[in-house]
Specification:
The structure is a single chain. The protein has 228 residues and is α+β, with helices and mostly antiparallel strands. The chain has 2 domains: 84 residues, no CATH class; 106 residues, Four Helix Bundle (Hemerythrin (Met), subunit A) (Up-down Bundle). 46% of the residues lie in helices and 22% in strands. It has 5 helices and 6 strands. Strand 3 and strand 4 form a beta hairpin. Helix 1 runs antiparallel to helix 2. The longest helix has 48 residues. The chain is flat, with a radius of gyration of 23 Å.
Length: 228
């Protein structure tokens, strides 16, 4: 596997994708070590470990932090590479590929042009409405339809209004002042909607399955002990 330092990464400060300048590295590991009465190691197993890498973006000169986690105790254990900072705010898990790709592309533009970023985020909201079979002649009515159907919770309504309004302003080239804070907030609102509709249900179902599998395994082991 190619080293993290030699891989292509994206800086979500400015949208640059390419090789980043390595600055430093740290990490942790979980080990199972057995020693004899004299302190000599008689058995050793690496259970899991995680490395954290700090990079500098050569375009905007801002820091990027990437983690690499490996579960070593199993032959095909999980191996995850995650951009910890700046974060894209949502997980891929459970999210339709086109919606995740559109959101990722929108976030990449925030360091290039605020209007393009806001317009792209509005488009992500439109894609979500389409994916959820919203009915209506415009985005506002589609949002209302999803709220009526309880697909969107009522608290999402104001967030959708902000996304829609700022996206409209960006599309019509209205002369309003937009600041970094505004764009970051809209990114957060869209990320929250994606997480609520897609990522959270996926994670909950995954965790539920793991608990059920563990309980079933424990019951099978218990039954085997009783039959001996």
């Amino acid at each position: 596997m190619q080293e993290i330092q030699k891989q292509v990464h994206t800086c979500f400060h400015c949208g640059n994708t390419g090789l980043l300048k390595p600055i430093g590295k740290t990490g942790w590991k979980n080990e199972d070590i057995a020693e004899d009465n004299y302190g000599n190691v008689i058995s050793y197993m690496l259970i899991e470990h995680e490395d954290w890498y700090v990079f500098e973006c050569p375009v905007c000169n801002k820091p990027v932090i990437i983690s690499e986690y490996t579960f070593d105790a199993a032959e095909h254990g999980p191996h995850e590479i995650t951009t910890e900072y700046p974060t894209i705010a949502v997980s891929r898990d459970g999210v339709p590929k086109d919606i995740y790709s559109a959101f990722e592309s929108a976030v990449k533009t925030k360091g290039i042009d605020y209007s393009i970023c806001l317009l792209s985020l509005r488009r992500v909201l439109e894609m979500i409405c389409k994916d959820k079979d919203a009915v209506g002649s415009n985005l506002e009515k589609k949002i209302d339809d999803l709220i009526d159907k309880k697909i969107f919770p009522p608290m999402i309504e104001d967030a959708c209004w902000i996304i829609r309004q700022l996206g409209n302003d960006a599309a019509h080239a209205d002369k309003i002042s937009v600041y970094t804070y505004d764009v970051e907030q809209v990114i957060g609102y869209v990320a929250t909607i994606i997480d609520y509709l897609y990522s959270l249900p996926h994670r909950v179902e995954k965790m539920k399955s793991k608990i059920e599998e563990r309980k079933s395994s424990e019951k099978r082991n218990e039954d085997k002990r009783h039959t001996k």
